[in-house]
Amino acid sequence: MLSYSYRGTLTIAASFVVALMLSALPMPVVAEPWRPAWVALVLIYWCMALPSHTGILTAWVVGLLLDVMTGALLGQHALALAVTAFISLKVYRQVRVLPLWQQAITVYGLVFVFQALVMWVNGIKGMPVSLSAYFVVPLISMLLWPWVFVVLRDTRRKFPVS
Predict the structure, then answer these.
(1) Three-state helix/strand/coil letters over the chain
(2) Which class for 34: exposed (0-12), middle (13-18), buried (19 or more C-beta within 10 A)?
(3) The CATH classification of domain 4-158, taken from the options 1.10.150, 1.10.1760, 3.90.1150, 3.90.1750
(4) Whose CB among 18, 77, 81, 88 lies 3.0–4.6 Å from 59's, allowing a Cys bridge?
């Protein structure tokens, strides 16, 4: 039988794998700018729910996996997720007690920072930058936050993660 800490680590890792898979799903070219920041949403949840288990190192490793998976500049998503995790860890005590709709507004800001850093690196590389992605991705992620929160909270309760 697996110990509680090992089972919790597997649950967190499995949620990141699902988020990476959702990020890799093919979408029509028209809908691509509307893709939510799944990995950032899962990272924000775990940083707020269990800050002792998930932090900047986790964000960096998952970001490197996302870089390899998407073919982005190595470290681009890792940097953005590490900064997002750092901010999440600084504000989790205040945000965790808020109602879901107010948490969603905070998530908008966190995903906006994530998206701005990714777009900044793309701009430095000379790639065209879509200004709508600055606002659309955080907006879609904000609207999905209540469902992501409920699914991950129920998963955390079903498989005791502490």
Answers:
(1) CCCHHHHHHHHHHHHHHHHHHHHHCCCCCCCHHHCCCHHHHHHHHHHHHCCCCCCHHHHHHHHHHHHHHHCCCCCHHHHHHHHHHHHHHHHHHHHCCCCHHHHHHHHHHHHHHHHHHHHHHHHHHCCCCCHHHHHHHHHHHHHHHHHHHHHHHHHHHHCCCC
(2) middle
(3) 1.10.1760
(4) 81
Q: Which amino acid is at 120?
A: W
User: Using alpha carbons only, what angle is made at residue 27 by residues 65 and 63, rounded to the nearest 5 degrees?
Assistant: 15
**Residues 121-144: pLDDT tens digits?**
999 998 887 777 788 999 999 999
Contact present, 101 and 139 (Cβ < 8 Å)? no
Decide if pLDDT at 4 tops 70: no
- Which one, of 128, 131, 108, 116, lies nearest residue 41 by Cα? 108
For the chain, give every domain's residue range. 4-158
Quick: pLDDT tens for 59-115.
999 999 999 999 999 999 999 999 999 999 999 999 999 999 999 999 999 999 999
